Each structure stands twice: as C-alpha cells, then as structure tokens.
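REVIEWER CHECKLIST
Item 1: Sequence provided? yes
Item 2: Single chain? yes
Item 3: Sequence as submitted:
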Amino acid sequence: MKKDLHPEIREVIFKDVSCDFAFKTLSTARAKETIKWEDGQEYPLIKVDISSASHPFYTGKQRLIDTEGRAEKFAKKYGRKSSTGAN
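Item 4: Structure as written out by the authors:
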C-alpha cells in the first residue's frame, strides 16, 4: 500500500453554533481550533451551522430565522424592485 495515500482519521468535536450542541466522532476533516471535551482531553473543533439538534426535520419545530422572504431578499441584494406593480 502507498504511504500517505489515505487521510488521517481522528476523533474530532462537531459543534452546532446555533444551539450550542456538540458531539464527538471520527473524521478526516481538518480543524483550526481545539476544544477541551468532557473527558478532559483536547480535540480538534469543527463548527457547523446546523445539526440534528437544530434542524426542523429532526426537532419537529420550525424556527423562524428571518421574516423576509426569498423574493424580497433577492430584490434587496440585486437592487430590483418587487413585482407588485409599481416600479
């Protein structure tokens, strides 16, 4: 087998920043930060925006993050007026 062909698999912590939920698992992902875990050891930390603890499919709750719709966001971002008639 060739040397250095496969990435290193190690224990890392994934942390959901939206609800402060974290879990330890094996991964090949690189991390720039570390965190001290419940067992007292330091592990690489990978921050994620959403996990099973915050996703509406798994929680059964829809969280309203913003009140602006997709069309309004697009119009605001690209400087177009909404399609309500008056330009």
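Item 5: Key structural point noted by reviewer: Residues 10-78 form one domain.
Item 6: Recommendation: ____
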